[in-house]
Design a protein that fits this description.
Strand order of the largest sheet: 2-1-3-4-5
Number of strands: 5
Order of helices and strands: HHEEHEEE
Radius of gyration: 13 Å
Number of helices: 3
Shape: globular
Largest sheet: 5 strands, antiparallel
């Protein structure tokens, strides 16, 4: 299994747009865990959540990389390459 991909290498570090799942907050629903899009900062709920908004965001926008938005977690997932990395490469400056 690959240990890196171009999508993760090129991912930015945008500010999260919300403190919870954007769509769930708007509809008054709940989530299990949160994921932050490293292209635009969208915060969506995980696939264990009823609405799976992080994956729906990827399917709609094709933004390939999310990072856990849970305290103490820094893993990333690339939807395009189906690659999970425990942590991510650190960049001197965020690419946004």
């Amino acid at each position: 299994m690959a240990e890196a991909c171009d999508h993760v290498e090129q991912a930015g570090n945008p500010e999260p747009r919300t403190d919870g799942c954007e769509e769930c907050l708007a509809m008054g629903d709940e989530w299990v865990h949160l994921r932050r899009c490293l292209t635009c900062g969208h915060v969506g709920c995980c696939d264990s959540s009823r609405n799976k908004h992080a994956t729906k965001h990827f399917r709609h926008t094709h933004h390939p990389v999310v990072q856990s938005f849970e305290p103490g977690e820094d893993w990333v997932w690339c939807y395009e390459d189906e690659l999970f990395l425990e942590g991510r490469p650190h960049h001197d400056e965020a690419r946004v």
